[in-house]
Amino acid sequence: GAGVSQSPRYKVAKRGQDVALRCDPISGHVSLFWYQQALGQGPEFLTYFQNEAQLDKSGLPSDRFFAERPEGSVSTLKIQRTQQEDSAVYLCASSLVGDSDSPLHFGNGTRLTVT
Amino acid sequence: GNSVTQMEGPVTLSEEAFLTINCTYTATGYPSLFWYVQYPGEGLQLLLKATKADDKGSNKGFEATYRKETTSFHLEKGSVQVSDSAVYFCALYTGRRALTFGSGTRLQVQP
Fold first, then answer.
1. How confident is the model over B23-67, as pLDDT tens digits?
2. Backbone phi and psi for residue B30, each to the nearest 5 degrees, phi listed first
3. How many Å apart are CA B36 and CA B86, to the nearest integer?
4. Do A100 and B97 touch (CB under 8 A)?
5. Are strands B11-14 and B105-110 parallel, antiparallel or unpaired?
6. Mean per-residue pLDDT, A7-32
7. Do residues B98 and B88 lie in contact, with contact meaning Cβ atoms separated by under 8 Å?
8. CB A45 to CB B98 under 8 A?
9. Pick from A41, A48, A106: which is nearest to B97 by CB?
10. Closest to A32 in 3D by CA, of A50, A6, A55
11. Which of B44, B47, B94 best probes binding to A when mutated, by most A CB atoms within 10 angstroms?
12. Which of chain A's residues have a Cβ under 8 Å away from the Cβ of B36?
C-alpha cells in the first residue's frame, strides 16, 4: 500500500532489553515524525527528521531513546534498556513538507509492552 | 507552553443524534487547529483543519470553527452514524514542526 508502514505491530520486551521499531514513510515524503502515545492519552512528540537530518529531538524522554533515518527514507526508533514506563504505542508520521499545509500521514503504530 | 484540552469521554450517542466534542487550547502566536480521528485498528487520520481565526473546517459532515476569542475549536456533526464511532483528537500547530494533541475523546454511536 501507499501508506506509512510500521513494524512490528506489537512488541513485548522484558525490562532491560533493547528494542528497535521501524517506520517506512510514504515515498517522497521529506518530513518524518515519531510520537509516543500512552494509554488513554494523545500522541506526544518525540523527534523530527527532514530527510536524513534530525532537526528536533527535544521530545525524547531520555538518552535511552535514539532515532535515525540514515538515507532519508526508513527510520528506526531504538530504545535501550527498556523500562516499564516505556510501554506505549509508538507512532510514526510523514508529510511531504514540514508545515501545517502538508497533512501528516500516520502509521498504525507499534504497541510496546515492557514486562 | 502549548496545550490542548478536550472533553473527557466516552461520549455515547444514538444514531442521528447531534454531536459536540469540546476543544480549547493555549498557544503562543496564532496556531493552526486540527481534528484527527482514529477508527478502531487504524492509524490517525486528518479529519479537518482551520488555519486562522473564524475559519471553518469541514469534512464528512463534521465541522469546527476556529474561535480566537474563546480559544476553542469544537467539533460538531448534525447527525452521527454508527460508523463515526472512533477516538477524536484535537491538535494545534504553531510552526515549530510538531503537533500538540489533546488526550482524545472516544465517541460511541449506538444503532
1. 999 998 889 999 999 998 888 999 999 999 999 999 999 999 999
2. -125, 95
3. 10
4. no
5. parallel
6. 96
7. no
8. yes
9. A48
10. A50
11. B44
12. 106
Q: With contacts defined as CB-CB under 8 Å, which chain A residues touch B46?
A: 103-104
What percentage of chain B carries pLDDT values higher than 90?
A: 81
CB count in 10 Å sphere of residue B108: 14
Amino acid residing at B37: V
Calpha distance A114→A74 (Å, rounded): 24
Helix H or strand E segment including A17: none
- Cell numbers placing A110: 507499534
Q: Which of B32, B44, B102 is opposite residue A100, by nearest beta carbon?
A: B32
Pairing of the two strands A19-24 and A5-7: antiparallel
d(Cα A79, Cα A68) in Å, to the nearest integer? 12
Cβ proximity of A67 and A76 under 8 Å: yes
Q: How far apart are CA A4 and CA A96, in angstroms?
A: 12
Cα end-to-end distance, chain A, whole Å: 33
CB B25 within 8 A of CB B48: no
Q: Give per-residue pLDDT as tens, A38-71.
A: 988 999 999 999 999 999 999 999 999 999 999 9
Q: How far apart are CA A92 and CA B88, in angstroms?
A: 18
Residues of A in contact with B51 (CB under 8 A): 100-101
Contact A103 B46 (CB under 8 A): yes
The three cell numbers of residue A31 are 518530513
Q: Is B45–A40 a contact, with Cβ atoms under 8 angstroms apart?
A: no
